[in-house]
Amino acid sequence: MLKEGDFAPDFELPDQDEVMHKLSDYRGKKVVLYFYPKDDTPGCTKEACSFRDSFGEFRKQGMAVLGVSKDSVKSHAKFQEKYSLPFPLLSDTDTSVIKAFDAWGPKKFMGKEFLGILRTTFVIDETGRIIKIYENVKPQDHAQEILKDIL
After folding, report:
1. Of the residues 8, 33, 44, 117, which is catalytic?
2. CATH at residue 70
3. Which of 58, 89, 99, 142 could form a disulfide with 63 if both were Cys (CB 3.0 to 4.6 A apart)?
4. Is residue 121 one of the residues assigned to a domain?
């Protein structure tokens, strides 16, 4: 289990434009790395739009925002374009990064239990250490919650 103070596992994933992103490329700036279940679903859209609407403030703080789900690059491109998302959406189709960050586990929906992506966010400092972990986040207010905590 990852915890605050641990170094975040490095990874390399493609974004919606098939550009590769390595977490280590972001050393020197804080990173908000958020894991979400599925493109263009109600909760995930609210969460992405809350990051979009607060993106200027994250940039002012020198922070990068990266979204990760197991959706395809093509799905991410449509989602990003539809909602004018100004940050990369990374595609982890084999869930290796999602699992490395402990963002995969049992979920319940309509009485059925299944394995899926747990809505989890990591704030990572300039050296690659995890400084805050958010679990079971409320999609609509999440970006503001992070800003409140770091400012």
Report:
1. 44
2. 3.40.30.10
3. 58
4. yes
